[in-house]
Amino acid sequence: MSLDFKPDFGAGFRDETFRDDFTYRNSPDGIHRFPFPFDRDDYTYSVNMEPHVPGRTGSVFEHAFDVDEHYVAEMLDRAKVLAEDPLRCQSLPHMELAGWDLLELIMVAKARDYPQWFSLTRDGNRWHWINRPLGIDQRFTFLDASTLPYGPFEYITRQTQGDFSLQDERDNDLWMDAGMITSQADWSLDFDIGMSFMEWHAPVPLAHEKGIFDRALKFLLKLQQGAPVRRFNWTMTVNPLLDTAPETYPVWGPTRTSLTHDNMGDKMHLRVELQALFRLPRSNAIAFSIRCYLGRFDELVSVPKWARRLHRVVRDIHPDVAAYKGFLRNRDAMALWLAQYDDGAPTSPGWWPQD
Amino acid sequence: MSGGAKLAVRVAEVVQVNALIRRFRFVARDGAALPAFSGGAHTVVEMDDHGTRRLNPYSLMSDPEDTSGYEISVRRDDQGRGGSLFLHRHVTPGIEMVISNPINLFPLDVRAKKTLMIAGGIGITPFLAQIAQLSRHGGRFELHYAARSQALGAYMDRLTAAHPGRVHCYFDEEGQQIDLGRLLSMQPIGTHLYVCGPKGMINWVLGTAEKMGWPKGALHHEEFLAPGTGLPFAVQLATSGKTITVGPAQSLLEAMEAAGVDAPYLCRGGACGQCETNVLVCDGKILHRDHWLTPEDSASGHKIMPCVSRFEGKTLVIDR
What we know:
The complex is a heterodimer.
Chain A (H helix, E strand, L loop, with lengths): L27 H5 L17 E2 L19 H14 L4 E3 L4 H18 L4 E6 L2 E6 L4 E6 L10 H6 L5 E8 L2 E8 L8 H4 L4 H5 L10 H10 L7 E10 L10 H4 L11 H4 E12 L6 E11 H4 L3 H13 L2 H6 L6 H9 L16
Antiparallel strand pairs in A: 1-8, 2-7, 3-4, 4-5, 6-7, 6-10, 8-9, 9-10
Helix pairs in contact in A: 11-13
Chain B lengths: L5 E11 L4 E8 L12 E9 L2 E8 L10 E6 L7 H8 L5 E5 L2 E2 L9 E7 L4 H12 L4 E7 L8 H7 L4 E5 L8 H6 L5 E6 L2 H13 L7 E4 L10 E5 L4 E5 L5 H7 L18 E11 L7 H6 L2 E2 L5 E9 L2
Parallel strand pairs in B: 8-9, 8-11, 9-10, 11-12, 13-17
Antiparallel strand pairs in B: 1-2, 1-6, 2-5, 3-4, 3-6, 3-7, 13-14, 15-16, 15-17
């Protein structure tokens, strides 16, 4: 068996690419619902967790797993990445039950929140899953991996936007023992798999000194079933490239030297990660979803509040943070370009475009 | 809100298991499925005992895949503060209650080559759910279960019938005792040891295993402490600007809640660490009863676990 997509680009899903000719764009509606991550005019690290509860209608917070206009194209891009490098998806043998937990969580949520696209029918452990945008119609036995073309974790994450990792909880620590990582901000699952929470966060600057990871781990070990949480992270990416992996750095790294004042608005993208954490029921593991949204500078400055604020954040950011996020060499040029759209007017608190 | 996500349930069934133990089955009030859970998880049951709010943790003993209902078994404690007596005397089928989502402080390490379980008395309950989970997924396990007498050995019949050769029973009244040294010396490498029962048994099992060189990461135990009773004491809450008195049969956490202070908690049994609170002034002696704080933290006098620990002395000011 294999998972053959019969993609349907109707129903508003964009036929676009995240590589080669980079035809990825946000529609006007897509720009308006972009999860702009800065709620004030400056940025410092914080744990910034909040309950992952349904938010405003139409926003990326409306549902537990946001399905947007890029869904079908993103899943095709993931399939290409996996075909070139199967190690982008790994699950240690003891994580299969956690994979079933995640499969159930996602299928139930998508069938409930997007009945026009997904359907799940359950008769005991005999399940029937339909994914219309990808042309999938699958009958299988829940908790029997031999009835799916992939393990449960890979099966469901090939059909879900965003990267996922599964953390096993042992010895008062979390261990990254499974992952589907194809739209990452320059980190490697193959390097991190099996690591503990402090080990995989070791490269982050400044935050360790502030005790942020001690508090975050303590918080996550108390994460409860039925009470997921979320936070934002962000960086900058040249071209709408989802797969900025260390493994392919020689391909995309040099594009950082290709920026000019004239192409800045077209090539530079604010890369926002909406990260959510779920305690899984059967395995007691924690699922971490890292959903990547790409916003072109040209698109973002069409919202006056965001234009002003993005300029101020980029201009004033700590150089260590800019270096870690990989845009220190371009920071001044970015700030100069963004300055054209900042008239110095005050901005309102919060991230919503119109508030 | 402290305590996390809650489940609105109805009592579907109450069964007298033996002279001391009653089993309660909860189903969702709206008829929907309850969440699946992992073996070893507990739920915190909220009780309104004639005006006194009680929240007690009980291990979930039913099959974790059975989402039609949850079951707990409660041993009547005539000397306790009243939670088990309330459940035994006043909770009958049809009553609506609120329980927490499952929380697991005693999870299986599913990498284990073998799971060795040692239960004493009512400590059998988390193992019932763990055995159901391991049986479903083909995990290798062995249970050694000690009870006071045959009559008080709850669920022994069911266990020995379902898992012949894997379940071994011992009765104190018949002078039987687990041959622990021999048992621990026979286990294959990669075995994880789980113990749940009275404090003396837990200390005996863990102490013996440690002496025999078992790795710390392979030893697991769970013991919920009742908050216990004691002399009343006064506490100043620095953040809330209140001074409260903790009654003799009340915990510090319960006294804060009664005063309208929303303090964090999860297990309410001294195990999870969620209610850990900084002590600002301590002129007297904190009676630490948790097993969360390190010995250094306990000795420092700078931390207290309000769910179970008490105070004797002149002044206690905490950061809450």
